[in-house]
Automatic annotation (TrEMBL):
The keyword tRNA processing does not apply. This is Glucose-6-phosphate isomerase. InterPro entries: G6P_Isomerase, Phosphoglucose_isomerase_CS, SIS_dom_sf, SIS_PGI_1, SIS_PGI_2. Belongs to the GPI family. The lineage of its organism: Bacteria, Pseudomonadati, Aquificota, Aquificia, Aquificales. GO terms for cellular component: cytosol. Its EC number is 5.3.1.9. Pathway: Carbohydrate biosynthesis; gluconeogenesis; Carbohydrate degradation; glycolysis; D-glyceraldehyde 3-phosphate and glycerone phosphate from D-glucose: step 2/4. Keywords: Cytoplasm, Gluconeogenesis, Glycolysis, Isomerase. It holds the Pfam family PGI. GO terms for biological process: gluconeogenesis; glucose 6-phosphate metabolic process; glycolytic process. It catalyses: alpha-D-glucose 6-phosphate = beta-D-fructose 6-phosphate. CDD domains: SIS_PGI_1 (cd05015), SIS_PGI_2 (cd05016). It comes from Venenivibrio stagnispumantis.
Length: 448
């Protein structure tokens, strides 16, 4: 179960300078009705992510079963939308100590940080390891670089049997990895053509590693289907949670100058959910001078770090708290404690955490910082499925509000192209010239 409380975003609570008037919200009703029907039609095209909850997952489940039976280590090689969702599902839905207590142990090779790469390699036994290489384009430099090193190690250790230790998840037709998988008869999954990286967590991209780690992926999809049903049926802004979140953030941004969207869960298991959200919100909407900068804060840790700024710094933020009502475990403070600490006696950690959320929420409201709270009765696959779909739809719908394409990332491509040029990739000679004309080290300070 998910509840969305947006009371403290509204002008009747925090004033018109920072808060949204209900009339403003409702003035989007015709826009919403029109966009709603466009979205339903787009579900076979750019909004194909909305169809993922209905996919057949037999192959994913069967493959996950085989991996669990045959391997002790499962390593995802991918970056951005090809790894953030995997990390998010794993951290939200498995125990903190999963790798200490379970097999297959789960690792992600995303960055090309050699020390991190080495640390993962040191922890695994290559003969007992299965690698899932995930890349939609099939050409992302970090993923390909990590893959090529692993491939070399696999071949050296296992000879032709290396093929049994690889699973490729990539475009159905295009790219180097699709060719590689087909030519070498390596088990592969296809990422639907119309689904981009950051909208792909509910495809084999995110679901295989989740299933390998024992997560109930059918329940994740069930939750996503429920959210899809609500978002498909409800055209009314106040009843459609995705449109509501999108319009509130849009109005806060465009009309109240809230250029920063803070997401602050009071549960460390949702820390990676915020990383996933940051990519979704930033890469989808940061275009043509528009977009909100997403910021991560974790309750209660960031009360002792960023809340000072949120309350008294620039009035440029809208905050989303995520509250979890029931935790899997809890611990009580003893009653036999010094008298001046008596206010804590007999209370549980979860109680303190949630009271801290309320305290911080009211403190922000008092400072007229617009804030909403998403309440989960507990963190489970069903609720996480709902939450994922909710934010995917809110982000995609926001594309219509800002009149930008939420599904591309032209500004990311440019940096990739310069990197290819610097690495001497064929066909990028002109890019290298362009790089040289822009790159300068003019003002420098060197300290040794
Ligand atoms: O959302 C996106 O499309 C990007 O963030 C990609 O996921 C990221 O760049 C990795 O791309 P690929 O999956 O092609 O390796």
């Amino acid at each position: 179960m998910i509840k969305i409380d947006y009371t403290d975003v509204m002008a009747d609570r925090i004033g018109e300078r920072d808060g949204i008037l209900r009339e403003e919200l409702l003035s989007f009703r015709y826009f919403t009705v029109e966009t709603h029907s466009l979205i339903q039609r787009e579900k076979d095209n750019s909004f194909y992510f909305a169809k993922l909850p209905y996919q057949d997952i037999t192959d994913i489940l069967e493959t996950a079963k085989q991996i669990r039976e045959n391997f002790d280590y499962f390593i995802v090689i991918g970056i951005g939308g090809s790894s953030l969702g995997n990390i998010m599902l794993h951290e939200a839905l498995n125990d903190f100590n999963y790798n200490e207590n379970h097999f297959p142990k789960f690792y992600v090779l995303d960055n090309v940080d050699p020390e991190k790469f080495g640390a993962v390699i040191d922890r695994i036994d290559i003969k007992r390891s299965c690698f899932n290489v995930i890349t939609k384009s099939g050409s992302t430099v970090e993923t390909i670089a990590n893959f090529l090193i692993i491939l070399d190690i696999l071949k050296e250790e296992l000879g032709e049997k290396y093929k049994e230790h690889l699973i490729i998840t990539t475009d159905p037709e295009k790219g180097f990895l699709r060719k590689f998988a087909n030519e070498n008869n390596i088990k592969s999954f296809s990422i639907p053509e119309n689904v981009g990286g950051r909208f792909s967590v509910l495809s084999s991209v995110g679901l295989l590693s989740a299933a390998v780690c024992g997560i109930d992926i059918e329940q994740i999809l069930e939750g996503a289907r429920k959210m899809d049903l609500i978002c498909s049926v409800e055209e009314h802004i106040e009843h459609n949670p995705a449109y509501l979140i999108a319009i509130l953030h849009y109005l806060a941004n465009i009309r109240r100058g809230k250029s920063i969207s803070v997401m602050m869960p009071y549960s460390e298991r949702l820390s990676s959910f915020v990383d996933w959200y940051k990519q979704l919100w930033a890469e989808s909407l940061g275009k043509e001078g528009f977009g909100q900068t997403p910021i991560k804060a974790i309750g209660a840790i960031d009360q002792h770090s960023q809340i000072q700024l949120f309350r008294e710094g620039p009035r440029d933020k809208i905050v989303t708290f995520i509250q979890v009502e029931k935790f899997k475990r809890d611990f009580k403070i003893p009653t036999d404690i010094p008298e001046d600490l008596n206010y804590l006696a007999g209370h549980s950690l979860s109680e303190i955490l949630n009271k801290e959320l309320l305290g911080t929420k009211v403190a922000l409201t008092k400072s007229k910082v617009p804030n909403l709270t998403i309440v989960l009765d507990e963190i489970n696959p069903y609720n996480i499925g709902m939450l994922i779909y909710l934010y995917e739809m809110a982000t995609a719908f926001s594309g219509y509000l800002y009149k930008i394409n939420p599904f591309d990332q032209p500004a990311v491509e440019e940096g990739k192209n310069f990197t290819y040029a610097l690495m001497g990739r064929k066909g990028y000679e002109q890019k290298l010239e362009e790089f040289k004309s822009i790159y300068k080290e003019k003002y420098k300070l060197e300290i040794s």
